[in-house]
Specification:
Length: about 180
């Protein structure tokens, strides 16, 4: 992995804390890192497909070889998983560019880009066993950033939004 490029500046805000003006992160995840992140949502589909496949093979061996056609069902139902697996095998890793502004961040990977509000960040944590930071967003999306691509000041900046959201949740009375 090449050395990350990062442009940012830090200054003191009125509360004595650090505020970081817009910064950018650039990194290229390996196939293994990308698979670890992108296969997690597919785990139930993979488990179900394995069980279904074993059942289809048992039926085909005991009843009729025509039942081998049942093995096509998971391929059809989970074609998004098949596309992902083929993409992981054939395509080289694509660089990821993250631009963090004062109120939002944009993630660009290839020709895709997504913009999220910083106020929606609910948790920032270091992933155990891996050298990466995970940023969880209110819209149920997650962003995995290698430790080598982000500075501690930038992590603290992102964590400040999660802390603020937690404080707001505690202070709002529930009906």
């Amino acid at each position: 992995m090449r050395k990350p490029r990062s442009a940012w500046s830090a200054s003191r805000d009125r509360n004595g804390g650090h505020s970081i003006t817009p910064f950018e992160l650039h990194y290229t995840p390996s196939r293994r890192e990308r698979a670890a992140v992108e296969l997690i949502p597919w785990v139930p589909a993979i488990a179900g497909s394995i069980g279904f496949g074993i059942g289809a093979l048992v039926l085909a061996s005991d009843v009729s070889a025509w039942l081998l056609l049942l093995l096509l069902v998971p391929l059809i139902l989970y074609r998004g998983l098949m596309v992902l697996l083929i993409d992981l095998m054939l395509r080289s890793p694509r660089p990821v560019h993250i631009q963090v502004a004062a109120t939002a961040f944009t993630v660009r990977c290839g020709n895709q880009h997504q913009t999220r509000l910083l106020d929606g960040i609910i948790q920032v944590f270091r992933t155990e066993g891996q050298d990466s930071w995970t940023v969880l967003h209110l819209d149920r999306s997650s962003l995995v950033i290698p430790v080598t691509a982000i500075t501690s000041e930038q992590v603290d900046f992102l964590k400040s939004f999660a802390r603020r959201a937690a404080t707001e949740r505690r202070t709002v009375p529930h009906p």
